[in-house]
C-alpha cells in the first residue's frame, strides 16, 4: 500500500496561495488550509506528498516566512469519502449544476440522463475523486464562465477545442454540453485520464481523451480554442508549442493564475505572441482570455 507524507506549515495569510503553488511544483498532491488559532495573520497549511516529501531547507522556508509545524506518515486511503458523503450539488456559472456525490442506487449514467435540474441548469455528475476539477475551485469556475460567454459569441459546433491538463474532464464536458464537437483533451496523469473517461461516459459525453502531451498530436493539428486550467509553472514551457498549434486569431483561456502575478504572466504571454482580450477574477485567482496575434 502506498504511503504519503503529511506536513503542516504555518505561513502568512498573504503568502498562502503562492506557497501552495510552490509546494505543488515540489510534488504536493494536495493541501488543506485552516486558520491559525494562535496568529490571526497566519494559516496552517497541510500539504500531502507521496513517499518522503520534499527536502526543504531552512532558507527555503525562511524565504516564505513559513515554519514546519508537524510531519506525519500516512497510509493510502480514500481521503475524499467523507467529503463526498457531506457534499451537495452546487451551481457553477450561469448554466451548470455539479453533483460531486457518488451515485446511489442506480448508475451515474441513469442519473445524468435525467437531463437538467429543477432550475433549468445542465446537470453534470463529477464525483470527487483524485483528479482535479469538480467545479468547486475558483480556477475551474472561471474557466466555465469563460466557456459560457464564448459559446454565446460563436457557435461551438464550428470550433475545434483542446483541453490541456484535463484532470476530471469537467471543462471538456462543459464545452461539449455547450455544443462543441469534438473536444480533444489530454493529461500527463494516466489515472486522471481514466477518471475523465469515466466521467464522460457517465454523463453521456464523448470527448477524445488521452494520456500524454501535446506532442502526441499531429504537427498539422490547429485549434480554435484552447483551455489551460494549469498552474503557470507547470505549463509555461509548453506554451511555444501550444501557440504553434493555434489558428491565427485563435483564443486561449488561461486559468490557475494568481492575481498577484498578473503583470508578470501577461508580459510572458505577450512574448509568446498572445494578447489579452479579457480577464475574470474570483478571489485570489484569475483567468485570462488571450488571442493569438495574427500575421
List keywords for this structure.
single chain; 295 residues; alpha/beta; Alpha-Beta Plaits; Rossmann fold; 2 domains; seven-stranded mixed beta sheet; 10 helices; 33% strand
Question: How would you sum up this structure in a few lines?
Answer:
By secondary structure, the protein is α/β, with parallel strands linked by helices. It has helices spanning 16-25, 58-64, 81-86, 108-112, 138-153, 170-177, 190-202, 232-235, 239-244, 262-271; strands at residues 3-12, 28-35, 42-50, 67-75, 90-92, 96-99, 122-125, 161-164, 183-187, 208-211, 223-229, 246-258, 274-282, 285-292.
Q: Which CATH class of the largest domain applies here?
A: Alpha Beta
When the domains are counted, the total is 2
Strand content: 25-35%
> What's the pLDDT, averaged over the residues?
87
The CATH topology assignment of the largest domain is Rossmann fold
| Shape designation | globular
The count of DSSP E runs of length 2 or more, i.e. the number of strands, is 14
What structural class do the secondary elements suggest?
A: alpha/beta
Would you write up a description of this structure?
Helix content is 29%, strand content 33%. By secondary structure, the chain is of the alpha/beta class. It has two domains: 3-75, 2-Layer Sandwich (Alpha-Beta Plaits), CATH 3.30.70; 131-292, Vaccinia Virus protein VP39 (Rossmann fold, 3-Layer(aba) Sandwich). A seven-stranded mixed beta sheet has the order 10-9-8-11-12-14-13, with helices on both faces. The radius of gyration is 20 Å and the shape is globular.
Summarize the topology.
Layout: E1 3-12, H1 16-25, E2 28-35, E3 42-50, H2 58-64, E4 67-75, H3 81-86, E5 90-92, E6 96-99, H4 108-112, E7 122-125, H5 138-153, E8 161-164, H6 170-177, E9 183-187, H7 190-202, E10 208-211, E11 223-229, H8 232-235, H9 239-244, E12 246-258, H10 262-271, E13 274-282, E14 285-292
Parallel strand pairs: 6-7, 8-9, 8-11, 9-10, 11-12
Antiparallel strand pairs: 1-3, 1-4, 2-3, 5-6, 12-14, 13-14
Amino acid at each position: 500500500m502506498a504511503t504519503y507524507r503529511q506536513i503542516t506549515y504555518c505561513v502568512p495569510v498573504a503568502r498562502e496561495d503562492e506557497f501552495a503553488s510552490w509546494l505543488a511544483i515540489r510534488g504536493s498532491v494536495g493541501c488543506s488550509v485552516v486558520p491559525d488559532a494562535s496568529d490571526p495573520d497566519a494559516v496552517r497549511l497541510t500539504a500531502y506528498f507521496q513517499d518522503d516529501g520534499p527536502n526543504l531547507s531552512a532558507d527555503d522556508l525562511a524565504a516564505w516566512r513559513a515554519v514546519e509545524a508537524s510531519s506525519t506518515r500516512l497510509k493510502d486511503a480514500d481521503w475524499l469519502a467523507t467529503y463526498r458523503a457531506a457534499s451537495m450539488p452546487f451551481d457553477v456559472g450561469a448554466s451548470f449544476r455539479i453533483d460531486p456525490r457518488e451515485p446511489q442506487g442506480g448508475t451515474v449514467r441513469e442519473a445524468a440522463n435525467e437531463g437538467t435540474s429543477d432550475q433549468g441548469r445542465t446537470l453534470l455528475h463529477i464525483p470527487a475523486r483524485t483528479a482535479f476539477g469538480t467545479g468547486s475551485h475558483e480556477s475551474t469556475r472561471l474557466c466555465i464562465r469563460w466557456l459560457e460567454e464564448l459559446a454565446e459569441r460563436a457557435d461551438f459546433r464550428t470550433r475545434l477545442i483542446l483541453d490541456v491538463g484535463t484532470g476530471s474532464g469537467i471543462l471538456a464536458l462543459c464545452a461539449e454540453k455547450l455544443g462543441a464537437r469534438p473536444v480533444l483533451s489530454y493529461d500527463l496523469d494516466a489515472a486522471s485520464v481514466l477518471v475523465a473517461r469515466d466521467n464522460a461516459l457517465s454523463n453521456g459525453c464523448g470527448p477524445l481523451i488521452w494520456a500524454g502531451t501535446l506532442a502526441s498530436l499531429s504537427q498539422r493539428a490547429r485549434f480554435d480554442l484552447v483551455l489551460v486550467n494549469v498552474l503557470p509553472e507547470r505549463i509555461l514551457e509548453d506554451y511555444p508549442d501550444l501557440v504553434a498549434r493555434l489558428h491565427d486569431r485563435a483564443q486561449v483561456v488561461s486559468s490557475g493564475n494568481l492575481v498577484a502575478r498578473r503583470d508578470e504572466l501577461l508580459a510572458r504571454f505577450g512574448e509568446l505572441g498572445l494578447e489579452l482580450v479579457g480577464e475574470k477574477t474570483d478571489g485570489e485567482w484569475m483567468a485570462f482570455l488571450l488571442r493569438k496575434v495574427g500575421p
